[in-house]
Design a protein that fits this description.
Number of strands: 38
Structural class: alpha/beta
Strand order of the largest sheet: 7-6-8-9-11-10
Radius of gyration: 46 Å
Shape: rod-shaped
């Protein structure tokens, strides 16, 4: 049965991630020697070792840049053990040239001292391709951290007995693949040889006599420049960042320079309260949550520890969270984590559990906390569950705005306390419903009960008081008026702010026998 081998390659580190049927290779695997090499330097032996590790023939699922995917297919298709190669080209916003510019600018801005890398390249020409020499001399790639040096050689003048000095890379410029001889690797010290073939081929790249052939599709100079940027510069860039030191190389800006398929962006909290935990959240640069696709490690487990996708604060102090892509042994991103000991508010007591207010009223809500010396008292926040009924500012000042019911809530940290609010309108009118005349006429010792209604009925100040301006004439008991002595006075109905007056006249009580006798 064919095994599944997943290979993900990042040329900017460089780093190759290899999973065989979902399992990582161990530290003693022969494949370890290949994981940090430029992909186009891979030879047939790599695929033989894959067979040895897998124990059977296999299918390779390769993930990487467009440039690397094309080259990997060339080598894999020649292996008798690799039965199929599936390629996934990772999308990326940054070209190699933009990465080079970004790294160059970062080194300048941070005033970092770097040792410049010199990459020696040799152009090998023959009688036919000699005409390109002047154009090739104009190629220039250099910046703060690297410089490409170019030299030239006549292929016909170099023999096995007269080997040239070894170059880092040899660019063999030829009109067709027949120019490549069997002894070319030995002739050029078995260095990295790339043949640029001027004749159009049936593919952009292939391998001939263990040499990578690149068929020129546009013009020679552009293709060499692009090959240098996509095939050599990423490796140089990665070595430069590796040499910057621990204090620089895991910074977010540099992580973007060396990542493909999206930068890792840590979105979780970095400060943990002692004994509590925070959630790990990581997104790629496109906003996709990739938290579950990564592995995590806390450097100092005395301070904090990883539990699934959370970090638990064990003791006060600082440590670092290392974030790894699955299958990779090199850390991808490092974040600072701090555990702090806190004295937080545990309880909030408001001076009221319930208040009743009239529209337009103002009230300042007071609160008390436990413990009194808590260190997060100043983070007190107030809110209203319905701002149309009641508004409250950050000092606890309440304004009643509209009839209704809601709550005001005091929040400090993760502790809260609430107070119920009932808002009512103020009294507008007092109506006496059983008064048909301008004044009430009572006989002495007779009674009259007032029928009173209030507008609005639910007024907050609906406690009314009925009084007589002259109790010798009219006495008041509840809502009853009792005539006493003849005379005229007024009855006052009031809640303290709204008043209504009624005139009452008391007349002498008639003798019923006398009236009956005289038919009166």
């Amino acid at each position: 049965m064919l095994k599944q081998i997943d290979i993900s390659y990042n040329p900017f580190v460089p780093l190759m991630k290899i999973l065989i049927d979902g399992s990582e290779i161990d530290d003693f695997s022969q494949l370890i020697s290949y994981i940090n090499e430029p992909i186009w330097e891979i030879k047939n032996k790599f695929f033989d070792i894959l067979y040895s590790e897998a124990g059977t023939e296999y299918i390779v699922n390769f993930e990487g840049t467009k440039f690397d995917a094309a080259i990997f297919e060339v080598f894999g298709n020649e292996s008798k053990y690799c039965k199929k190669i599936n390629v996934n080209v990772l999308r990326d916003k940054l070209t190699s040239q933009k990465r080079m510019i970004a790294l160059n600018q970062y080194i300048k801005n941070k005033n970092i001292n770097v040792e410049k890398q010199y990459i020696n390249c040799l152009f090998v020409l023959n009688d036919i391709t000699e005409k390109y020499k002047e154009q090739l001399e104009d190629i220039e790639i250099q910046n703060i951290f690297c410089k490409f040096n170019y030299d030239f050689s006549d292929y016909n003048k170099v023999s096995l007995e007269n080997k040239i000095r070894k170059a880092d890379y040899v660019f063999l410029i030829t009109e067709d693949e027949e120019f490549i001889q069997d002894n070319i690797l030995e002739k050029y010290n078995e260095t990295n040889i790339i043949a640029f073939v001027l004749k159009k081929g049936d593919s952009s790249v292939k391998k001939e006599k263990n040499i990578l052939l690149h068929y020129v599709k546009n013009d020679l100079i552009s293709d060499i420049f692009e090959f240098t940027l996509d095939g050599i510069l990423p490796y140089v860039l990665g070595r430069c960042i590796e040499n910057l030191g621990e204090q620089w190389k895991y910074k977010q800006e540099l992580q973007r320079v060396t990542s493909i398929g999206g930068t890792l962006i840590y979105k979780g909290k970095k400060c943990i309260e002692l004994g509590k935990s925070i959630q790990i959240v990581v997104e790629d640069e496109y906003g996709k949550d990739i938290t579950r696709d990564l592995k995590y490690k806390v450097v100092d487990t005395r301070v904090a520890s990883c539990q699934s996708l959370t970090i638990l604060g064990n003791m006060p102090g600082k440590t670092k969270l290392e974030i790894y892509r699955r299958g990779e042994k090199k850390v991808t991103l490092i974040e600072d984590i701090e555990v702090i000991s806190v004295n937080r508010v545990e309880k909030i007591i408001l001076d009221n559990d319930y208040i009743e207010m009239g529209i337009g009223d103002r009230y300042t809500m007071k609160h008390h906390v436990y413990p009194e010396d808590a260190d997060n008292i100043e983070s007190c926040k107030w809110l209203s569950t319905d701002k149309n009924i009641v508004s409250i500012d950050m000092n606890g000042n309440i304004l009643a705005k509209k009839s209704g019911q809601c709550e005001v809530i005091c929040i400090i940290g993760n502790v809260s306390s609430k107070c119920g609010c009932i808002i009512k309108p103020y009294l507008d009118k007092i109506l006496v419903n059983n008064l048909d005349v301008e004044k009430i006429v009572l006989e002495s010792c007779s009674e009259f009960e007032l029928e009173i209604s209030l507008e609005p009925e639910d007024a907050i100040d609906n406690n009314i008081k009925i009084t007589s301006l002259d109790y010798d004439i009219v006495n008041v008991i509840g809502r009853k008026l009792i005539g006493k002595n003849t005379g005229t006075t007024q009855i006052k109905i009031s809640n303290g702010s709204v008043e209504e007056f009624i005139t009452v006249k008391v007349v002498k009580k008639k003798n019923k026998f006398f009236n009956k006798l005289f038919n009166k």
